[in-house]
Specification:
mainly beta; 125 residues; seven-stranded mixed β-sheet; globular; 11 strands; 0% helix
């Protein structure tokens, strides 16, 4: 069982940067979770942006953010971050933090049991 809360969204001009944070509250310290960021714009499919395995040893980036976004975690704070650079208008979406109680991550939204409420990111031209 884990509760997730995102923060850091907002409005920014194209070319700017934002850092999203996801605070995780766990009831069992021994449970390991794959953490992920997804995003969804109105009328579009929810897509995986980035994932990070427990301990941060393995990361994955979707094509949309590869080379521009960085996922990281602070185990001491139970927080995962998404640093977004060189933002484009097409990055505008609601960004969600997600977790699944498995070591191995995947990019399928249905594979994640826990979700945050989402944080809006708006990029203007």
């Amino acid at each position: 069982q884990v509760q997730l809360a995102e923060s850091g969204g907002g409005s920014v001009q194209a070319g700017g940067s934002l850092r999203l944070s996801c605070a995780a509250s766990r009831d069992t310290a021994s449970t390991t979770y794959c953490m992920a960021w997804f995003r969804q714009a109105p009328g579009k499919e929810r897509e995986a942006v980035a994932t990070i395995n427990p301990g941060g040893g393995t990361t994955y980036y979707g094509d949309s953010g590869k080379g521009r976004f960085i996922i990281s975690e602070d185990n001491g704070k139970n927080t995962v971050y998404l640093q977004m650079n060189s933002l484009k208008p097409e990055d505008t979406a609601v960004y969600y933090c997600a977790a699944r109680s498995e070591y191995w991550c995947n990019g399928v939204a249905g594979g994640y049991a826990y979700w945050g409420q989402g944080t809006q990111v708006t990029v203007s031209s």
